[in-house]
Structure formats: C-alpha cells, structure tokens
Amino acid sequence: MLRSANLTPFVDALPIPAVARPNAAGHLRIPMREIHAKVHRDLPPTRFWAYGDSVPGPLIEARSGQPLHVDWVNQLPAKHFLPVDFSLHGCGHDIPEVRACVHLHGARTPSKDDGQPEDWFVPGRSRSSTYPLQQDAATLWYHDHAMGLNRLNIYAGLFGMAIVRDKTEDALGLPAGKYEIPLTIFDRNFTADGQLYYPDSGDPDHPWVSEFAGDAILFNGKIRPYFEVEPRLYRFRVLNAANSRFFNLSLTGGQPFHQIGTDQGLLPSPLELKQLLLAPAERADLLIDFSHSAGQNMHLVSGLLDILQFRVAPATSSHNHPVSLPSSLRPVPRIPESSATLTRTITLNEHLDRYGNSMIMVLNRKRWHEPVTELPRLNSTEIWEFVNLTEDTHPMHLHLVRFQVLDRRVFDVFGYENGKGLRYLQDAVPPAPNELGWKDVVACPPGIVTRIIVRFEGYTGKYLYHCHILEHEANDMMRPFEVVA
Ligand code: C2O
Ligand code: CU
Ligand code: CU
Q: Of the bound ligands, which one is closest to the alpha carbon of residue 444?
C-alpha cells in the first residue's frame, strides 16, 4: 500500500474538468470507459472507469427548465477490477458482473429516467435519459447507482458534476468563467505502483466492508494539487464524492470564507464560515476572497492535513476588483411544520449480517426488496424523522425531492430499543446556519432524531431513499418510496 504522505505535495496543478454542453437540441452523449490517468507526478497512470476521458467526468452545464437528454453509453470491460461481492442483494453470479446505471443526484427526474439501482445496463448497451430540470439553479452530480455495485463503480471513477443555472443566479453577478471552479473531493487507497486498492473483508465469498476511508485525498483527480489564483474573489462548487468519508474543511490561518449555496441551490444570504463539514454527497457553493493574500500561499485543510494549495499571484493593478458580496441571494421560505399531513418515523438500525461477519445497516428493520411502505401523495408535505439507533452518522438522501432540515434532538436509544418509545433527553437543536438552504442530503448523527420536512413535488412513481455512505447503501441501507396520485 502506498502512503500518500510520502508523496511530494502540491506538484500537480488542479485539473479543471472539460465542460460538456448540450447541443441546441439539448443532447449529450457520455461514454463510460476504462482509462488510465495520472493522479500524481511521481506515480504511474492509474486504471479508472470514467465518464468520458477523466475522473471526475466532464462538467455538465445545463439550464433550469431546459430539458437535457443524455445518451449514457456503457463501454466498460466485462469484468470488474475491484472485489465484487456476489452475495450482496442484486449481485448474484447469475447476472452480468459489470453493470452500470446513471443517477443524476439532485435532479427532479421522472422515475423511469432517474437511474435507479435495478435499471442497470451492461457493456455494449446504452441508455437515453431525459432530465426536465424543472428546478432552481443548483450543483448536482451524476454517479453510478447499479445495485450492490455502485460503491465499486463510483470508487473506480464513475462520477461527475452537473451545474444547473437560472436567471435568478445569473442576476447576482457571482464570479464566473475561470473564476468559478468545480472542486470534487474524494479519497482513495493506492497500491505501491499507483493502482486503486479497495479493501475486502478477508472472506472471499463475502468481501463487502462496512466503510471505507482512503489514505490519499484527491481534488478533481489529483492527490494534493496546487491551484494558481489571482488575488480576487473566486467561486468554488464543492462536492464530496467520497464513498464514506466526511471532510471538515478550513483555510490556513483561520481565514474566513463564505458559503452561498447548499445541495439544492442558493442560501438566502452569504454566510461567513471558518469551517465546513461536508458529508458524502453533500455540495457547498463557496466564495473565497484571495485579495488579501496576494503573493502568498494559502491551504485548504481537512483535519490536520493540507490537501490543496492556493498560490495567490502578486497584486497588479489589473487585479483591483473591488470585492462585493451580494447581501441577499435567493429567498428560502421555511416550510411551516403545520403544513405537514403526515410524520414518518424511519429508524436507522444495524445488526450482524446473516454470516455473522459484520454489521449491516438497514432502514426501519427492512431490506431493499421488501414491499414499499412509504407512499407519500404528490404535492403533499410530510415530516420524516430519522431515528438513529447506530453509532455512526448517516448522510440520508431522498431522490426526486428537495427538503428542509427542521431540527435534531438527543433521545434515549436504550429506552427506544426496549419498547419505551421516543423519549427525548434534551431540547431540539435547530439546523446549522448553512443547513438553512434546500437540501437533498442530511447528516443524521448517532443517538439523535433528525427531522426534515419535504414536499413531494414533481412526479408520481417509484423512487428511493438511502444512506449515502456507499457501503451502507449496498447492504442494505436503502429503501423504496413511491409518490402516489
Ligand atoms: Cu447520490 Cu441514490 O444517490
Ligand atoms: Cu439522488
Ligand atoms: Cu449509513
């Protein structure tokens, strides 16, 4: 195993993904294929599975309300190069080993084009999906969602960012063009010769592991790169595309920065932060002002590790752009709790798997293939309370919808498990200020009830909700829901 701390940091420039802009008819064609790409100056090229030519894949640029049609073409090899667990649900030896399916995370998409776990297709086949994008400007991402396999397919490189823009956002005059940077962050393990390494349980029949934390941190596909900036304001679209890892990001010297958007678009107003915790699949839209750091280096830090170096150019007169942050961005009216017609209690549980090897995680003590139990009505509003009985934080995601976080509240786990019902031990804590925008992922900490409020807008049909720790999702922390008329 490679120890990435032994690699010289900040020797590779931050790659900026190519832009995939749909043609006049709104069409795009994106192949999936095996590529070899250098993740660091001193390592040989790494085998990846990519959308297009890079990991992450091309940045899809789309407009709100303008339908996007993508032909996803599976040109992957017929054998996987990572440890497939054939005993996982939906992963048998009786079906093709390599399967792919693409979900546009955060998009309001009709069920048939949503890219759901069982809608996979094999190498040699393709799938056309239409995304109406009747939704506000936001940072979305596309990633593999094949049943039981997406933890490996995403690990192999099958993910990319998509940006939806609209007029409200255009009018704000935020940094654009070369001053607006997609920043996808993820962790990987590498072998000494620079190849992806994904751990297994040691049991060849059941290689699934319950979590993954990689030794190397990558930005847009490079380990600890540098990025040359001008001494001015930049906009960064940050995405945590890691399988399991949470990133706690800050700038050296306690430099403040501003968050202007969450998973599903703009916050009501810019929020000054010194630290940003990003769970798997969460997005943050950030503004960083380099105008006071001309001629210096600044680092982005996660925990104790410097992971990205900003090299700020010396000041010149042409850099004298006054920094102005818009004081308000986009109203996010709070959904009144009284508008909810139903509260659903969803427990997050763990128990030993049927081989007695490891803990598996489930929702409501049910597995994926059991009948649908959540059937919200179209255009109705519901409160979902996630009762976390485990010792992990689970980032819960719902397809189709955007939601608001209501609160979090410590409860008596032991009492709950012994039939005493929900007994709260403390007052409810309101969401963090940077959770006051529209969300599609919410961190649910252990021993806490996390409540969200959701309006089921858009389409009827089958969807799903799941923990976005990909290892949990695969075994079997994922359940269907169906929006009914
Ligand atoms: Cu990123 Cu089922 O989603
Ligand atoms: Cu999704
Ligand atoms: Cu989880």
A: 3
